[in-house]
Amino acid sequence: MAHVKRKNKTSIPVKYLLLTFTGLCFLLMLGSFAFGWTSGPVGTATSYVFIPMQRGLTTVGNWISDKTTELISLKDVMKENEMLKTQVNELTEELNTLKLEQYDTEDLRELLALQDSYSDYTKVAASVIGKDAGNWFDTFLIDKGSKDGIAEGMNVITGKGLAGIITEVGPNYAKVRSIVDDMSSVSGMILSTSDNCIINGNLQMMDERQMITFSNLKDTENKVAVGDQVVTSYISSEYVQGLLIGYISEIHVNSNNLTKSGLITPVVDFEHVKHVLVITDLKVTKETTEEK
Fold first, then answer.
1. Which of 16, 176, 246, 279 could form a disulfide with 266 if both were Cys (CB 3.0 to 4.6 A apart)?
2. Vertex 118, ends 245 and 127: CA angle to 5°?
3. C-alpha angle with apex 56: 54 to 58, nearest 5 degrees?
């Protein structure tokens, strides 16, 4: 038998169909506008094709317009947000500056009041310019030195009371060892009873409870109580008399049953020391007078 060859059906690619359909739509649209094909079979066909496309284009156009408006609004909001952030930062800096100025004003006012309280002594005002590492101003530098009449052994006070003593002097600076430093030892006196004691700096106790220690208190009549003021004693060889140190916080009887020890809360804020007064009158003791 003879084989009959079948002709292959020609298939039209999809892309050509799409192009043809698009061209036809375009012609129908053009005809409807150019030749007024708004009625009859052609108009009907055009309406079936063109109107849905117009609706689709309108919908897409409206969506794009809405998104564009949203993007513009978002950009405006972001720009406004950046402006507000800048204003907040400026206001925060201004507030911090006002707080610092307020702190300085209060600090200087307290120094002025303290200067009036110790008017019998000659004093030089100074500012703190540095400190050793750590939480507390146990040793720190001030901006006055030998050119300003500062010498070793001079007492240093703040707006609250006794801060420390000058231990080193340069032409334009001086080093202060505060009463909270481990190396510090001050002869103190209970103001209400005139009983003497030894006050020692204690950085560990400052870290734990913001207090320093006292010892060798001979309170034979048991009159010393929590809350009593402690000042520098008249028997001190380094500190002038009557400078406020702090208040009794705890009292303990020692094992010898003769003396007492305990804790004192300093009146000076040794975490923030900015301005001080240096008492330029050195303590004059009976021993130094006899030597002269």
1. 246
2. 75
3. 65
DSSP state of 144: -
Ranges of each domain in the chain: 123-284
- Give the pLDDT of residue 287: 42
What Å distances lie between residue 123 and 150, 168, 191, CA to CA?
Answer: 10, 18, 24
- The pLDDT, as a whole number, for residue 283 is 83
Beta bridge partners of residue 253, listed in sequence order: 260
Q: Which residue is associated with the tokens 């700096």?
A: 201
Beta strands in 57-205 (DSSP E): 123-131, 139-142, 155-157, 162-169, 174-178, 185-190, 196-200
Tokens of residue 3, six digits: 């084989």
C-alpha pair distances (Å), 237 with each of 29, 39, 155, 285? 112, 121, 12, 6
pLDDT (0 to 100) of residue 181: 97
For domain 123-284, the question of CATH label 2.40.10.340 is answered with yes
The chain-wide mean pLDDT, for the chain, equals: 79
- Interacting residues of 127 by C-beta distance below 8 A, sequence separation 6+: 142, 143, 274, 275, 276
